[in-house]
Every structure is written in C-alpha cells, then in structure tokens.
Amino acid sequence: MITISTQNSYTSRRFVMSLFLILTMGIHSCDSFVEVDLPKAQLTNVTVFEDVATANAALLDIYAKIRDKGLLTGTPYGLSNQLGNYADEIISYGAPADPTLDFYTNSLLPSNTAVLDFWSTTYNQIYEANAVIEGVQASTALTPEDKNRLKGEAFFIRALLHFYLTNLFGDIPYITTTDYKTNSSVSRMPTDEVYEHIIADLEASTNLLSAEYPNSDRIRPNKYVPKALLARVFLYKGKWAEAANAASAVLNNTSLYVFGNDIDTVFLKESKETIWQLMPATAGKNTDEANTFIFFSGPPPLVALSEDLVNSFDSNDLRKTHWIGEVTDGTNTWHHPYKYKEFNFTASSVEYSIVLRLAEQYLIRAEARAQQGDLIGAKEDLNKTRQRAGLGETAAVTQQQIISAIGQERRWELFTEYGHRFFDLKRSGTINNTLTGVKLGWDSTDVLFPLPQSELSVNPNLRPQNPGY
Fold this sequence. Notes:
The chain is mainly α. It has 19 helices and six strands. The protein has helices at residues 8-24, 52-68, 79-86, 100-104, 113-138, 144-169, 180-183, 191-208, 224-236, 240-251, 288-293, 307-312, 318-322, 358-371, 375-388, 399-413, 420-428, 431-435, 453-458; strands spanning 90-92, 274-278, 303-305, 324-328, 333-337, 353-357. The strands form three sheets. It has a two-stranded antiparallel ribbon. A two-stranded antiparallel ribbon has the order 2-6. Strand 4 and strand 5 form a beta hairpin. Helix 5 (113-138) packs antiparallel against helix 6 (144-169). The radius of gyration is 22 Å and the shape is globular. 45% of the residues are buried.
C-alpha cells in the first residue's frame, strides 16, 4: 500500500482550507500548511486551482515539505547524512538509540522507522505532485502558460522523488494518480520500467517549462533543471550519448550558468553554478545541512567525516582546506563538512540547500565522453573541477584511467551531497569491494534498503521483500 496521510476526500478538504489560510494571512513563502478541518459553513466553493495564486501555493508547499522532511531534507534524517553513514563518508558518534546508527552499522531492518519515513513521506509528496497535475489539467481558469509551468514543475518533482526511491529500494510502484483505491493495491514495477517513466516525466517537464526561472533565487525549476536530472538518469542507465547531450544542453547555456573560479562562492545562494536549490523556511535562516554537520568541540555530537575520506584529498586541494572543517581537543582531531558555513541566523539568508549544481554536469559529461572514447573532451571536463580546486590537470591517459579519475573526482567534489557516493559505488559495481572490510556490517544485499514491513503487511502486492531482509 502507498500510504498517504488521509483518504482523498478528507485530504482535498484539508488541502483547500490550508491554501485559503495561507493566502488570507498574506503568507506567500514555502512554509508548510496549517492542518485544520474545513469549516462546515465556509469555503465550500473554493477550489485550489481556480486561480494561479492558490495553484502556486500548492506547489510551493511541496517544495517546503521536500526541504523539511524526507529524502532531500538537510536535517540528520535526510540522505546527505544517512547515506554518508551508510557508505564510507561519515562516522557516527550518536547514542545507541540514534536512528542514524543503524545506517552507519548497515543494520537496517524492515521495521526501521527511518526507512518507513523515507518511503511514506516521499510517496505523500508524490501524491501531492499528482494532485497538482490533475488539478491543473482540469482547471478552466488557469492560462495555458500557467498550466504548462505548474505541470512542468510537478512532473519534475514526481520524477525526482521516484528516482531516489528506485535507487534506494529497487523495484517500486510508480504512482501517477491520486486515486486512493488504485494506490492502495499497487504492485512494484521493475527498475528499468521505473526509469522509463522517470525519463518520460523529465522530458515532459523540459518541454513544458521555459528557459527563464520563475524567480531569481532558482528555487523553482526552469527547463534546464529537469534536463540536468535527465543527464544524471541517462548516466545511471549507461546511455552515454544521451547523458552527454543532456549535460551539454545545461552547460552550453552560459547566459544562465557560470562555472566560477572562487571555491568559496559555490554554496552561496547567488551562485551562478546553482541549477536548483531549496530555500530556507524563514528569512534569515540558512541551511539545515550546516546545523547537521558543523560542530565546535569534540567528540562530535552526531557525526564526523571519515578520516579515509579526509586523507584521500591532496594536501593542496582547496576543497580540503575550504570545504572541510577541523576540530581538536588537543589530543584528538575530527573533521566535518564545511560546504555550508552559516550555522546561525543572519540578517538575510546567505545559503540555500543546493540540490543540482554545475560541477556535477561537467563530471557527468566527462564520464559519458570517456565511455564513448572521447578522451580529450572527457579530460577537459574533468579538469574544470580540478583546476578550480587548485590542482593540476589530470595525469590519467587511458580510458580506464580517466574513468577511474572521474570517479575519484566525484568523491571529492560531491561528498555528503544527497548520497552521490553511495549511488556511484553502486552503479559502478565497486560497492562490495569498497565497503567490505571497511564497513563491518556491510553485506552485498545492503545495496538495497528493506521495504517497510508495515507496507508489506497492508499491501501484499508489494512483496517479495528485498533479498537479505
């Protein structure tokens, strides 16, 4: 069963009332909705998609929920922390009751509440994206331009969330409706078919969205946001030409995207390298990632970077000196991610949570080119991140050397960002050799999370359980 918070009719009433409250109170940010029941004598004729203001509010609420809870949150419960623990980026220092510890020890069980939260929260967010698609499609009040933009964003959200789910759980249902009865008895779809749906949604999103961002903060997608994710999807699928072409479509738009030379500006909210980011909940607040990872005294209260990762950097790599913080008590030394530096509130927010950025697109194209034998082009792309980090051009010569160098560069450039390291090890087939012996609890079946037991109990069509659980 794909669990949503309530059945359709009640959810829709609560959804409408929440939108009304946001608009009448003058709140037009990404803050979460207030959950209240629909008064019996009011708003009976209100529909979410009767005008662009309420439709925009519905979409903004999904972004707020993605930011605050689930796979992409920057809190300790999101993928950046949990998959960093699950692979080899992070060492856990939490208490035995801390749910992060099960990720660090690779001892997840079908009863794990964090795994259930990933599943149920993400499908709730997908449900809301589907509600936007259906509501916009049925609307007779919205302009064609507004319909295209709203649907394009919702298709992107749906594809993005399914992408992460299938890379965590393998075969999953691909949900494209808000019909409660249909969703309650869905079956899992083979991963290849899931990817076909993801690609179709991203291509639809790209065609519906315009080249201009709806706002200057890049918190809502333009057409190059789904195109950037499409480049990653094609890379994961081994569609090298398609991956290179999709990445090039983003990289060639130099009027929007500029790869800077200053490593300290990469994670600022105004960075021209940002493709898409999540805005903090309130003005002056900065990222949850900074609060999750930064600490000022040892031992660390939650997590620290693994020394293997820290020591893998060249001593003059600017990412080591600028993106990694060091804490010592005079005897022991620990390190933490320091990509986001603003731990406290500031007069105005200076850092947003960046989900898609330009460096990944260069590394995607580098790998795709190398796989096709374009070694010169691959090295040119690879050297973009190396030179910005203060390193010389790569010494790799052969195709395999270049591919290996790109993998290492991804480890250095993308550490603790939404599970890139885990997914890269998994898709390259090197995960067992890399983590066996390094992670004492690692087993080959850990490449997939367990399906939540409560979901299997409610909907037997989701069976069988993933191997090893």
